[in-house]
Write a structure and sequence with these properties.
Death Domain, Fas; mainly alpha; 10 helices; 0% strand
Length: 183
């Protein structure tokens, strides 16, 4: 909890650069506040540079954060004040703010889920997904083209389906299509 604002800004920079809630208008408000209230942190020339609308907002924000880190502790603190004033929801969702909030909560009350765990649906990986998907497609093909009397030409579809499959499965599908022609 004793992190300096400079260290916090280093930690939060990646989040701020990727957060889409910081649009052009909000970045401009932060730049203007830093320029008007603290001209020693952001001069008129620097503010004009960071407010250039020809440069994408994400680039301007990244340059601003780098500039503030170079200016030192006071500049970083005033950036956090401006962020808190203009974009409170972003300020409270910063990684350093969330960490402080969790540290202040009783250790027994802390959530056991790490942020990366909420995105993991299972532990099997992409091959498991592909095998399940392939099995579902195979079952669907057999279901829809399984009744030879109901669908004409279904045996040729199963014959074509056998082209990209292994030898054992290909033999079964070809046997099934030849048997279906004889009915």
């Amino acid at each position: 909890m004793g992190d300096s604002f400079h260290e916090q800004l280093k930690t939060d920079s990646w989040f701020l650069k990727s957060d889409r809630r910081l649009d052009t208008e909000l970045v401009d408000k932060i730049i203007l506040q830093l320029n008007r209230i603290y001209p020693q942190i952001l001069t008129d020339k620097e503010a004009t540079k960071f407010r250039d609308l020809d440069v994408p907002t994400c680039v301007r924000l990244a340059e601003l954060l780098t500039h503030l880190q170079e200016k030192g502790e006071e500049a970083c603190r005033e950036f956090y004040r401006a962020l808190h004033l203009h974009v409170e929801d972003v300020y409270f969702s910063l990684p350093t703010r969330l960490r402080r909030r969790l540290e202040s909560v009783d250790p027994g009350m802390r959530p056991a889920v790490r942020p990366t765990d909420r995105y993991a649906l299972n532990q099997q990986g992409p091959l498991f997904f592909l095998s399940c998907f392939s099995a579902a497609v195979g079952v669907a093909l057999l279901y829809y083209y399984g009744d030879v009397k109901a669908a004409s030409g279904s045996s040729s579809a199963l014959g074509f389906a056998a082209l990209g499959i292994g030898r054992k499965v290909r033999e079964v599908l070809i046997w099934y299509t030849e048997d279906g022609l004889g009915r």
